[in-house]
Structures are given as C-alpha cells and as structure tokens.
Design a protein that fits this description.
This protein is an alpha/beta fold. The protein folds into four domains: 102 residues, mini-chromosome maintenance (MCM) complex, chain A, domain 1; 159 residues, Nucleic acid-binding proteins (OB fold (Dihydrolipoamide Acetyltransferase, E2P), Beta Barrel); 354 residues, Rossmann fold, CATH 3.40.50; 40 residues, no CATH class. Helices cover 39% and strands 20% of the residues. The chain has 30 helices and 24 strands. This is DNA replication licensing factor MCM3. GO terms for molecular function: ATP binding; ATP hydrolysis activity; single-stranded DNA binding; single-stranded DNA helicase activity.
C-alpha cells in the first residue's frame, strides 16, 4: 500500500514537470532544447532553475530541499517528453538526465560552508579540482544464463549514488534459486562510466592559518573526464551522506559526497567586473605624458623602498608575453620567470607576498616545504577503493597564474629538476603506476633564494654565489642579485621610509586604540574581497596623498595608483595582443648579438646567468609586456629598449655603471653609422664616421672642400699664438 502511495505521488509530480517542459506560454524554450539534445545525441537536458521558479515556485522549493525524489520524477517526465517528440530516440536509451543552473541563493556554498543542514538538498559549490580517479565501468544491469535450465536471469543494481531508483541489493548472483550455477553474459550486460573527483576550496578564499576543506564529487555517464586537476569548476548536485565502515562494521560517522548533475568550468580572470568607465580610465592613463611604465612600476609594492628595476620586471611578469602555438604543434611560452637572489633583509619575501595579492591567480609555496611531486603532480592511492588517483601540485593549480616559491635554494636538486619541463613547456607529464597523463601548468615562476654562503661574497663570481645549474638558470628570464651594501645616504632614506610606515595608522582608528577581537583580519579572511574592489563606483584611479605613506611634501607629485585600479589595469592590459614590428626586431637582434659576442663575454666577468637562445626569447617577451603596459597594438623600438635595460641590469648588476656606458656608446656609434648609410648624399668617409668629435652641423659640408680648410693656416690667430710663445726681442728679429 505504501509503495502505491509513493508511486502515485511520483506520478503527480511527474505531471507537473511535464507541463513545465511542454509550456507554450514560455515560447516552447525547452521543446527546442530537447530537439537540440536529440540532434547532438545527448541524454542530458540543461534546465534553468529560475524558469522553474517563475512557473512553479512550490515545485522549485521542493526540488531544492528534497532533491532525490524530485529529480527522479523530473527525469521520468523528461523521458516521457522525449518519447512524445521522437519515440525511436527514447527507446534507444533507458535513462535521460537533467542538469541545473541558475540562482541557488543560500545553497550556493563552498566546501567549508557545507554542513549537515544541506543534506538531501540541491547545492551549488565552487572549488578547484585536486584529485581525479580513473574512469571505471560501473554495472547497471547484469544478464546471467543458466546452462541447466536454459533460462536467462536479469538483475539491476542501484546504490546510494543512484538518482533514478532506490538502493537495491548489490549481491552479484552466482546461482539461481535451485542452486544451479549461472554464467554471466558480459556482452549483454549494461555498464556506465563512473569517476570520483575531489574539489578543494579556492586557496585565496581559505582563512589564514586553516587547512583548505575538500569534498568528493561523484560523476557518472557524460560527466566523467569533464575536468582535470587544477581546473576551477562550479558543481551543481545533490548533497548526500554515506555510511562509513571500519573493520567491516558500520559506524555512527558518515562521509559526505555530492552527486553531480552539472559541472561547468570557471575562469578566475572572467570574474573581474570591468566597467566601461574603467576601460576609459585605463586608455586615458596610457596616453598621459611621461612614461606609464614607470608609474605602474612605482605603484607596485609602494611600501617597499627602491628596487625600481625589480619592480619593473615584476610588472612584466604580471602582464606576460604572448603564447604562440605554431602549426606544427610547437609551443612558444609567453610566461615570464623571475629569480631573486640576495642577502637577507632585502625585501625578497615581501615582493613575493605583494605578487600574491596583485596577481589574479597565485599560489605560494616554500622550498623546504615542497617536493618535486608537490609542485607538479603525484599519483596517490584511494584508501577506500584502492584506485589510483592523480593529484595536482602547486604549479598545476596555478595554471594561467603565478607560482611564488620562497627559499628556492633550500630545495633539493632532484626536486628542482622536476620543474624544468613546467618552466619551459608549460605542462606536466606523468607516467607512473599505469597512468599516462599530461596536465597543463602554464604559469609564471617567481622564486626567491639566498646565496650559497648565506650572504653574497663580492670576491667570488656570481655563478659561485648562486650555486644553481645553468640548465635551471637559463629557464629564468631574469635573475636579479639584491645586495645589502652599506651606504649612508641610501640607509637614511630606507630608515625614514620604514619609520613612516610604522607610524601610519588607519584614519578610522584612534591613536592608542587596540584592535577589537573577532574583527579585522578574521572578517577579511572569510568574506569575498572582490565584491567591493570590483564596484565601479568605489574604484578610484590614484591613492589619496598620505604623508606617512607617500613621503614628504616634495614627493607629492609622484602619484601612485590604487591597488584596485592597478588590478583592473593589469587585467585589461593582459588582453592586448601587440605585434612585433621590424624596428623592434632589429633592436632585439643587435642586442642579442652583443650579448653573445666573445668580447662582451670576456669583458663582462660579472654576468649572473648564461646567455643562450632563450635570452633572445626573453627580450621578445619583455618587449611585449612593455607594449601591453602602454596598451599598444605594436611592439615598438622603445619597448625593445626598455627590455634591453632590464636585461642589462639583471645580467651585469655587479659592474653595472662602467660596462653599461661602453655599451651605450657602442650603440650610439652603430646608430650613427647606420643613419649615415641610409642617407647617401650626407655620407662621409669611414674616418670621419668614427670621429667622436664630429657634429651634425658639419654633415652638410662638401667633403672635397673639407680637407683644404683643415690644412689652411689662419694668419689672424698666428700672432696671438706667437705672443704667448716668443719673447719680444726674438719677435723683433723675425719682424
């Protein structure tokens, strides 16, 4: 009697859902969607829960709170509706599925906010995929043949993860009721794809000092292999609990899972809400007089004094170059890698911390607390099922972002070798335990390390101080040596800057007032920081002048951009795809030739890293990033010159001043010679071209009359010279 009541209630619910699908007032939206589903040979229909809420609010509330029964009735209604449209297609498949999207209100949760009150409800959660099990076939219906009786037995299997039916016995039959053995007909049995993935909460949204929470997601049929470790996804499904067994007995503790019906990819960059005014302000700022690149670099980490070139390099890292995939499949990376090596207390770690806040997607790790598989990917074993799983590392989780590795020198050589492929190819190849996979890890690496002896030894070469292999150093685009050199003037400026920062207090706080407990950092760590930052009405372009933060009154003209506007400007600049011009190409080629020349190698003994073909690609990437900062469509000569300055500062830091003047002088001479060759009427002889005292005004004079004028004696100047060199008596003799 009870089964009849349940069946009758399911039929009533099914009729309501069938009227929702076949709704002429809604312009037959789902009639078109079902036809499209049939054309695509699919079994899953995507339903907007907002449409159902407008049509039947009561049914929507029941669907959110009692998902198991409601989704079962909705899928039965979908199969009936498909049969009315195309009966042949409906008979082809035993089941049809539904997927949901739309607004879920309070049921839009994260792995941390999910609790027991959501059990049995339809939830929508976001996170990052950390583990993926192998796709295994799961039996749905088995067919058995009895040789003794010549009969066929069929049995269906459902468990707690099934939506289409209630759980049934999972005993696999080997004998019939009379004890006769059964043979399984594997060809007639029906299976479905099954996969389990693990979703972890976003690293940037996890509260400080707490481990990230995770939840297991069950994927069946067409939802398997729709994501990989490192992807940021949004999952809609039913939240359920399963009994846990220990020693063969069921305990009072339950483990929870989410049975997914819809999985969609998320992009962290796409969540930035950029208004029309923001784009207009960015374009207006890029056209202002002066160098926009210096303004952006000055706005990076304004609380850190100095390190101008390093801030410019970090800005290039955030903007990046252009990734290219050639027709033959070759990938040219556009990510910029940066290594900071220097003495303690030179703000290396603080620069890394700022990048974590400024980059749209960033993952932080340390050399001592990271292993090779922890940075790339690892193959683990599921304790419950025994299946092999692929677990993503830090670089895979930071795909299309930045990986900040502090204490890079504390890593072992074997662990550093594991990231070679990631830094150049942008992917991780795994061939372990029967798993052959390739994961994307297209990220920029910002690493900080100390020298071999703790402090930089001026009497040793940079290679001896750095202590890293050339194969690893060549993968870093720029390597900066940060020295703590005693300098009275510089030390005074640093001390004044640090003291001003420590004297600063928020204007909302009173002097001497203690921070209230339970507020401050704890509130900021649990709320979404992007809500206020992305509000166009609250985004200002420049920071308000504050003497304790921005220095004395004479530095008031040096404005700095606000952190919110800085993030939006970087987001807009990353979308620009500038093209390399011929002038910039020639400038880059000439600089690369000078770096590779034997004379430069011998004279510049303080070179910090080897000059390889990757250096040429470094110049191209830095030039492209500089053009992005100007929001330019072309990489011009000024962009190439800015990239050359960064490379020269990174390569020749120890003897920067004197060799750089020689290099600039050679550039001017080569430029004058090239200009004279391009102008045949003004061309001079080679002797005059090499003359460092030649002036532009004399270029228009005739070369034929130049030599006699130089050899002609000036009679007016001769007596003046004679008066200073000959005595009066001697002069009378000559006269």
């Amino acid at each position: 009697m009870m089964d009849d009541d349940i069946e009758q209630r399911l039929r009533d619910i099914q009729k309501e859902y069938l009227s929702f699908l076949d709704d002429e007032e809604n312009q037959n939206v789902y009639h078109k969607k079902v036809k499209l589903m049939i054309d695509e040979n699919s079994q899953r229909l995507l339903i907007d829960i907002n449409d159902l809420r407008k049509k039947n609010p009561n049914r929507t509330q029941e669907l959110l709170t009692n998902t198991f029964e409601e989704q079962f009735a909705l899928e039965r209604a979908l199969k009936e509706y498909v049969a009315n449209i195309d009966s042949t297609y409906a008979n082809k498949y035993d089941e049809f599925f539904v997927a949901f999207e739309g607004s879920f209100g309070s049921r839009h949760v994260t792995p941390r906010t999910m609790n027991s009150k959501f059990l049995g409800n339809l939830v929508c959660l976001e996170g990052i995929v950390t583990k993926c099990s192998l796709v295994r076939p799961k039996i749905v219906r088995s067919v058995h043949f009895c040789p003794a009786t010549k009969k066929t037995i069929e049995r269906r299997y459902t468990d707690m993860t099934s939506i289409s039916a209630f759980p049934s016995s999972s005993v696999y039959p080997t004998k019939d009721d009379d004890g006769n053995p059964l043979e399984t007909e594997y060809g007639l049995s029906v299976y479905k794809d099954h996969q389990t993935i693990t979703i972890q909460e976003m690293p940037e949204k996890a509260p400080a000092g707490q481990l990230p929470r995770f939840v297991d997601i069950v994927c069946d049929n067409d939802l398997v292999d729709c994501c990989k470790p490192g992807d940021r996804v949004q999952v809609v499904g039913s939240y359920r609990c399963l009994p846990a067994k220990q020693g063969g007995y069921t305990t009072g503790n339950f483990r929870t899972i989410v049975i997914a019906n819809n999985i969609s990819q998320l992009s962290k960059d796409a969540t930035y809400s950029v208004s029309r005014d923001d784009v207009f302000n960015c374009r207006k700022l890029s056209r202002r007089k002066g160098d926009i690149f210096n303004l952006l670099a000055r706005s990076l980490a304004p609380s850190i004094h100095g390190h101008t070139f390093i801030k410019k390099a970090i800005l290039c890292l955030l903007l990046g170059g252009i990734e290219k995939i050639l027709p033959n499949g070759t990938r040219l990376r556009g990510d910029i890698n940066l290594l900071l090596i220097g003495d303690p207390s030179v703000a290396k770690s603080q620069l890394l911390r700022y990048v974590l806040c400024a980059a749209p997607r960033a993952v932080a790790t340390t050399g001592r607390g990271s292993s090779g598989v922890g940075l790339t990917a690892a193959v683990t074993t599921d304790q419950e099922t025994g299946d092999r799983r692929l677990e993503a590392g830090a670089m895979v989780l930071a795909d299309r972002g930045v990986v900040c590795i502090d204490e890079f020198d504390k890593m072992s050589d074997m662990d550093r070798t594991a990231i070679h492929e990631v830094m150049e190819q942008g992917r991780v190849s795994i061939s372990k335990a029967g798993i052959h996979a390739r994961l994307n890890a297209r990220c920029s690496v910002l690493a900080a390390a100390n020298p071999v002896y703790g402090r930089y030894d001026q009497y040793k070469t940079p290679m001896e101080n750095i202590g890293l292999q050339d194969s690893l150093l060549s993968r870093f685009d720029l390597l900066f040596v940060m020295l703590d050199v005693p300098d009275s003037e510089n030390d005074r400026l640093i001390s004044e800057h640090v003291v001003r920062i420590h004297r600063y207090r928020d204007p909302k706080e009173q002097d001497g007032e203690a921070l209230p407990m339970g507020s401050g950092v704890d509130i900021l760590s649990t709320r979404n920081l992007e809500i206020d930052e992305n509000d166009p009405s609250k985004t200002r372009m420049f920071e308000k002048y504050e003497p304790l933060l921005h220095g004395p009154q004479n530095n008031k003209s040096e404005q700095t951009l606000s952190s919110q506007f800085m993030r939006k400007y970087i987001h807009i600049a990353k979308c620009v795809k500038p093209v390399l011009t011929e002038e910039a190409s020639n400038e880059i080629s000439e600089e690369y030739s000078r770096l590779r020349s034997q004379e430069a190698v011998e004279s510049d003994a303080a070179r910090t890293q080897p000059v390889t073909v990757r250096t040429l690609e470094t110049l191209i990437r830095l030039s492209t990033a500089h053009a992005k900062a100007r929001l330019s469509k072309n990489v011009e000569q000024q962009d190439a010159q800015a990239a050359i300055e960064l490379v020269q500062f990174a390569y020749f830091k120890k003897v920067l001043e004197k060799p750089k003047r020689k290099r600039q002088l050679s550039d001017e001479e080569s430029g004058d010679e090239q200009d004279s060759q391009n102008k045949p009427p003004k061309r001079k002889s080679k002797k005059n071209d090499d003359d460092p005292y030649s002036f532009e005004d004399g270029e228009e004079e005739d070369p034929d009359t130049e030599e006699p004028e130089v050899m002609e004696v000036d009679t007016n100047s001769l007596p003046a010279v004679a008066q200073t060199s000959i005595t009066p008596d001697r002069y009378k003799v000559f006269k």
